[in-house]
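Long-time lurker. I teach an intro course on protein structure, and each term I like to show students one example going from raw sequence to a predicted 3D structure in token notation. This year I'd like something fresh instead of my usual example. Would anyone be willing to generate the tokens for the chain below so I can use it in lecture? Attribution to the forum is fine with me.
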Amino acid sequence: MPENKRIVRSSCRMCHGVFQVLVHLEGERVVKVTGDPDSLTSKGYLFPKGAASPELLYHPDRLMHPLKRVGKRGENNWKRISWNEANDEIVARFSAIKAESGAELVAICQGTGRPCVAQRQCKGVKEWRSLSG
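-- Reply from a regular --
Happy to contribute to a lecture. Here you go:
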């Protein structure tokens, strides 16, 4: 394998299966994701969604930063805001809902069990978690 090409073992988090995968890299760019034939659970199988991961990762329309709607709903007008601004706004809105209607009105669900990068990076995680009680 050429020097700038390598394969890294990982796990696909695109569905509940969390299959073991081989991530094919050229330099630091993901070029392909395949099932790991040595996996005891998936035995090399990978759902199409997992195989499409590089397309999703590098899609030109992928959101890379928070956007806030400006104008009326449906006008498709957005402005870029910082992660801290987005987090502060979410905490403020959830806090208002909690004050008005009670904490049981808000549910935050994570269907696949994937770790939330935002929870590790945003300053408001404690505020988010404090909304439930």
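Some talking points for your students: Residues 85 and 122 are 10 Å apart (CA to CA). The beta strands are 5-11, 20-26, 29-35, 67-69, 78-80.
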